[in-house]
Amino acid sequence: MTATPDVISARQRGPILLRPFAMIGQTVIGAFREVGRIAVFSGGVLAACVTPVIYLREVLRQCMKVGFYSLPVVGLTAVFIGAALALNIYTGGSRFNAEQFVPNIVVLGITRELGPVLAGLMLAGRVSAGIAAEIGAMRVTEQIDALLTLSAKPERYLYAPRVIAGILTLPILVLIADIIGVLGGYLVAVGALDFNGSLYLKNSWAFVTGNDIWSGVIKAAVFGGIISLMGCYQGDRSKGGAGGVGRAATLAVVGAAVLILASNYILTSIFVRIGL
Amino acid sequence: MSVNPISGPILELKNVHKAFGAQQVLRGVDLTVARGQSLVIIGGSGTGKSVTIKSALGLIPLDKGEIRFAGEAANDGKSIAALRRRTGMLFQGGALFDSLTVWENVAFALLYRDRVSRGNAKNLAIENLAKVRLPASAADLRPAELSGGMQKRVALARAIIAKPDLIFFDEPTTGLDPITADAVNELIVEQVKALGAAAVSITHDMASVRKIADEVAMLHDGKIVWRGPVSALDNSGSPYVDQFVNGRADGPIQPAI
Ligand SMILES: Nc1ncnc2c1ncn2[C@@H]1O[C@H](COP(=O)(O)OP(=O)(O)O)[C@@H](O)[C@H]1O
Ligand SMILES: [Mg+2]
Predict the structure, then answer these.
(1) Nearest Cβ partner of A152 from B59, B98, B112?
(2) Which residues in chain A are closer than 8 Å to B88, comparing Cβ atoms?
């Protein structure tokens, strides 16, 4: 297995006028190569997620780490977003006498879009970076090599449990975020905008459909997978001591955030097409 | 364990080449380790001693050459898995899993590879901790709660628990004070002998070499430039070995600075 060198020597770079094109070309090729590497890595890990042996003890430990300890972050995000959303919709709606739609739009916006996307982005920061740093530290201290010599496959022992935990726990976190987000809107609507409390909740509940909730939950599962996969991928690739570990964490957060936003658009357009 | 009935070397490296990018690290390493033999690899920092060991374990893919374990080529997933099952490795920094307890570290291969029950695995771990002079009370601690010397001993217990035929030691005493280092060397010699295993060790420390080696091989410029019994170290006839043994900056080896 010989890797193509990433750096091309001066002689190979060609005439000076062509160099910008060569650089653009190299960047594009580099990007494709990275996408290919992520795809191969993800394929291997996802295969390990659905075939035996699955280390349940590890899965549970990671569910606690990914899910339970993320509750405060997700809850705080949701309550403030719900509150701000209610205010905005009220102000905008009042321009054409549509203030009464605040509960409907808040619940729709939260369940379909803001709940999963914001929980995903917050956890991209918290969980992706944490996983990348942890795995990266294991890589540079030779713990991953040690796993291999002890006949344990990192994708099975380390990565699959984290990815399973991400896929399982993010939907639960998002359901909780939905409730807290609606509550945030409710607090502002009742406290500052003179809405009737029980009517607000009744309207929210009557308006939201199973499809709204499902589409948010599916998004959350995908984002949960992305968050864990990117953390594992960057951690696995990290080298060069503490600096390399820090770099891995940063790359994981950026990669996860970009992939979450891109896949959110793709998923939304699929849901629109199939009427979910 | 008694002497293995199958004769022939336990490990052979043949013409092993490895480069990282433009940096050619190994340029044709040939090395044979007999069963039950303790071979020490010496050589300057960054000459590729760790890379040699990691290639032998299939942790680094070779560019060229061959690894044979117990007479069989180790060149695919299955043969490398068989090799790893019968070898142990003590990494330079210990490489203990810091999310697991001491006993879970020691019994890792039993728990996750051999699927031994946790109760039995823990008992076996405590037995092996005793072999490296650690008390049962250490079993439930985390690696971070141990001193460097204790971590090395836990790593040794982890390397021997599955009764390997060959154990690799990558600078087992680096970073330890001379007294602790000597104690770790004593344990290594004792445990390797008790298993009847072969050992391949890397060390910079000549006191350790004389303590643990039957034979010594010197790696320089990507090749083995000298090999002989430890008793021949002081009249090796090799300028490389002379310079290394006497710790001089002037000679055929350039200091790595
Ligand atoms: N995974 C790797 N990627 C790139 N270079 C490496 C890698 N592992 C080792 N090297 C390089 O190979 C050379 C030999 O390393 P090593 O075997 O660790 O030296 P030592 O003899 O001190 O153990 C060093 O220059 C090191 O930088
Ligand atoms: Mg080394």
Answers:
(1) B112
(2) 149
Q: Which of B16, B20, B170 to mutate to test the pocket of ligand 1 (most atoms within 8 A of CB)?
A: B20
Give distance in angstroms: CA of B25 to centre of ligand 1: 7
Interface touch B95/A142, C-beta < 8 Å: yes
Eight-state DSSP code of residue A12: G
Measure the CA–CA gap between B68 and B74, rounded to whole angstroms. Answer: 5
CA distance B6 to chain A (A): 24
Of ligand 1's listed atoms, the one at least distance from the Cα of B170 is 23
Residue type, A82: G
Domains in chain B with CATH codes: 6-86+166-173+195-257 (3.40.50.300)
How far is the C-alpha of B23 from the C-alpha of B11, rounded, in Å? 26
| 3-class SS of residue A256 | helix
Chain A contact set for B60 (CB, 8 A): none
For the stretch A117-145, pLDDT in tens is 999 999 999 999 999 999 999 999 999 99
Write out pLDDT tens, residues B81-140. 999 999 999 999 999 999 999 999 999 999 988 999 999 999 999 999 999 999 999 999
Q: What's the CA gap between B215 and A4, in Å, rounded? A: 39
H-helix or E-strand containing B193? helix B178-195
User: Taking the model in full, what pTM does it have?
Assistant: 0.87
C-alpha B198, offset from chain centre: 10
Cβ neighbours, 10 Å, residue A95: 8
For residue B151, the Cα-to-chain-centroid distance in whole angstroms is: 16
CA distance B193 to B124: 19
